[in-house]
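User: Need the bound-state model for S-adenosylmethionine:
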Amino acid sequence: MSRYQAAEWDERYQSSGHNLASPREFLVEVLPQLPREGWGLDVAMGEGHNANLLAEHGPQVLGVDFSLVALRKAKSMYPNVQSALVNLPQIHLKPGCFDVILNFWFLDREMFPLYPQYLKPGGYLVLETMRFDPDSDQSHLRLEYLLQSGELLQSFSGWEILVYDENVKANAKGKQQLAVRMLARKP
Ligand SMILES: C[S@@+](CC[C@H](N)C(=O)[O-])C[C@H]1O[C@@H](n2cnc3c(N)ncnc32)[C@H](O)[C@@H]1O
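Assistant: Bound-state model below.
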């Protein structure tokens, strides 16, 4: 199943059908609040635009994704970003070694308990992804890939929530999608 999905993503990246040529707006917005040293992890990094922006800010960055095509593109554009081919959530990293985790436009709830394990105390999680929208037709999307209202706040209760907005209208695949943005700090 996931090998099939990885092949699908490879195809999208090959055909340039998923080409966002720049970092996500939300990352640009919160970047000044993020540490300028240490290590960052970009989960499902795609072509590496977000990982690179973070790396330019200061930290060393490891980006993981299951699309080899995306990782190759990332490597050629951003040799400063380290990368690993990983089928999430099957990821095995040393606990407590990251200062920042980026999770943009990817949702696997099995990753949520890993974030506090991988982050150092005081480490930052920057997350943006789609939310269930009762007012629009999302039949082309799988429900499991959509956050529910309030879900992130519940999953990361006890964290310091620095930014939270669950009513963002973001452009995805040429459509306006309801998205959630959160910048949170591990206690
Ligand atoms: C919508 S793209 C987002 C890419 C990037 N984070 C961004 O914000 O532009 C989703 C990414 O998740 C990756 N992905 C999906 N399922 C994955 C899995 N099980 N393991 C690793 N990567 C996965 C895809 O290859 C793709 O690069």
